[in-house]
Amino acid sequence: MSTLPKVAWIGLGIMGSPMSENLVKAGYDVTGHTLERDKLDRLAAAGGTAAASVAEAVRDADVIVTMVPASPQVEAVAYGPDGILENARRGALLIDMSSITPQTSVDLAAAAKDKGIRVLDAPVSGGEAGAIEAVLSIMVGGDQADFDEAKPLFEALGKTIVRCGPHGSGQTVKAANQLIVAVNIQACAEAVVFLEKSGVDLAAALDVLGGGLAGSTVLARKKDNFLNRDFRPGFRIDLHHKDMGTVTDAARTVGAVLPVGAVVAQLVAGLRAQGDGGLDHSALLRAVERLSGAQV
């Protein structure tokens, strides 16, 4: 019998499904809950257990992981009579790996403490590919002892695992991550349009740019998206729009001015308003193409 903690996993979307499956591969007993039946069937096929409700999933868990889209969904699964805090056992560790506002994480940790439940905020970066390959970057906020306890679990999901400070710190760092990623994608998209309109071999150009100072993980991960105009979602524009709102609000709270970030946030919002919210965030290329006179 495994000595690893029993895990409840709430949220089996683009990121949550491969992440939970990686825990199963690592030997964890994983019970999952999500709203989509096919995602529950997928977890069961991978060796996990499907639960019909949040309450059922968390009842016997040592560790509870949430991976849902935004703050409202975290609050929906955490609070209320059918939520995590009312049904998890005292002493359980709740790890929220969603990307939400720092204040939501701080409030959740305070509410959970009253129930004897410990909390870490642990958002991730690396997208769907990073989740599948278990090479995510995991930025964590919370107590050092809880981080140390969770480290083996994190190591089954990612490669760069860092405690960034107290509750909410992981979310603050994630907001900064999303700012950098959005600005980087926008710069790459503008470069692609510029290169194509100049008649340059785009594939060759992106190869050489990737090997120089302009190279980045964003360019490496999204190069094929740009070349093939493949915008199937790894990380949807809708979610990046939410994240840009998070970083904008958080920056306003602490008095940080983000001029380039504000422009890119509006470009993301504009792409979403044009009906592209369900596409991958590399679809920022479509916005640049429209501005440059292309019909897309």
Number of helices: 14
Mean pLDDT: 97
Low-confidence stretches: none
What sequence of helices (H) and strands (E) makes up the elements? EHEHEHEHHEHEEHEHEHHHHHH
Strand order of the largest sheet: 3-2-1-4-5-6
- Based on secondary structure, the structural category is alpha/beta
Apparent shape = globular
Reported for the largest beta sheet, the result is:
6 strands, parallel
Report the span from N to C terminus.
56 Å
Total DSSP E strands: 9
Assembly level: single chain
Helix content: 40-55%
What is the strand content? 5-15%
Radius of gyration based on Cα positions: 20 Å
Task: Provide a brief overview of the structure.
The chain is an alpha/beta fold. Helices cover 54% and strands 13% of the residues. The radius of gyration is 20 Å and the shape is globular.
Characteristics of this structure?
296 residues, 14 helices, alpha/beta, 6-stranded parallel sheet, 3-stranded mixed sheet, single chain
Topology:
Layout: E1 7-10, H1 16-25, E2 30-33, H2 37-45, E3 49-50, H3 54-58, E4 63-66, H4 71-78, H5 84-87, E5 93-96, H6 102-113, E6 118-121, E7 124-125, H7 127-133, E8 136-141, H8 144-155, E9 158-165, H9 169-197, H10 202-210, H11 217-228, H12 237-254, H13 259-276, H14 284-291
Parallel strand pairs: 1-2, 1-4, 2-3, 4-5, 5-6, 8-9
Antiparallel strand pairs: 7-8
Helix pairs in contact: 9-11, 9-12, 9-13, 9-14, 10-11, 12-13
